[in-house]
Write a structure and sequence with these properties.
Layout lengths: L2 H20 L10 H17 L3 H4 L2 H10 L5 H18 L14 H12 L3 H49 L8 H52 L4 H9 L10 H5 L7
Helix pairs in contact: 2-7, 2-8, 4-8, 5-8, 5-9, 6-8, 7-8, 8-9
């Protein structure tokens, strides 16, 4: 799990706990399993209704990925493409076929396979751009799902509050229970807001940011593959692709290939 995700959640909960202690309040009124069940199941049910079965299939994987914080390693991709450019320039494009099994990134492997197949540059670009767009669409579904949960959670919090108020108003014969009933009713609203802003919205934001990073990494890989297709040297590939990186992350030809004198 990404420490930032867990740390942020702990920090937010800590704020609530400290504020409660400072005010001298009790935690007991803030605990309501029935309110949590109503908000979570209600939001999840409404969210599932808004999407197709095919859209939901990849959600568990996307959720775990967002929490773990997995992201593509652009540095590894640049170094690998430079090494492939070296092979292509020295032994020809067909020689790249022997390197296909060593490429873990599916997108890069697809691009290199197209290089081996000798497809036109326009076809190569179109094929990989379709893959980029399809990835964006798949990630967009997961992002939209969690945003929908963030929208439904407060709504079901209000539903729980209204239900609680109706039950309270139907039992006015016992005035001693009015305060307890009101507190329990408002607790559901609190849970709705908390689940939306401590869980669903942060996960949606993380997925959105990770999608941006993955698409940026795919753009770097696409540019590198096209540069190899044009017969660029390893130095040319590295210098071009490192221009996508901030200066502090640019390693250079020597460190990537171990050849300070690599020809241009």
């Amino acid at each position: 799990m990404d420490p930032l995700f867990l740390g942020g959640l702990v920090l937010a909960l800590l704020g609530i706990i400290i504020a409660t202690i400072i005010d001298g309040n009790s935690f007991a009124p803030l605990i309501g399993p029935s309110s949590a069940v109503l908000v979570l199941l209600g939001a999840l049910g409404a969210g599932l209704m808004a999407f197709r079965k095919a859209d939901i299939g990849s959600l568990p994987k996307s959720t775990v990925k967002a929490i773990k914080g997995d992201s593509l390693d652009v540095q590894t991709t640049i170094t690998q493409l430079a090494q492939l450019a070296e092979v292509a320039r020295r032994d020809g494009m067909l020689a790249l076929e022997a390197r296909l099994e060593t490429i873990e990134d599916r997108f890069v492997r697809t691009g290199v396979q197209l290089l081996v197949d000798g497809v036109d540059e326009e076809v190569l670009r179109d094929t990989l751009e379709i893959e980029v767009a399809a990835t964006d669409d798949r990630h967009g579904i997961a992002i939209a799902f969690f945003k929908s949960l963030a929208g439904y959670a407060p709504t079901f919090g209000m539903v729980g509050t209204v239900i609680g108020l109706i039950n309270m108003l139907g039992n006015l014969s016992d005035p001693s229970q009015l305060g307890k009933g009101m507190a329990l009713a408002l607790l559901t609203t609190l849970y709705g807001v908390m689940f939306a802003n401590l869980l669903f919205n942060p996960v949606a934001e993380r997925l959105g940011r990770m999608n941006e990073l993955e698409l940026a990494a795919m753009d770097v890989a696409l540019d590198g593959i096209l540069t190899i297709r044009r017969g660029a040297s390893p130095r040319g590939v590295i210098e071009r692709l490192e221009s996508y990186l901030p200066p502090s992350e640019r390693i250079g030809v020597a460190d990537r290939l171990g050849k300070p004198g690599e020809a241009a």
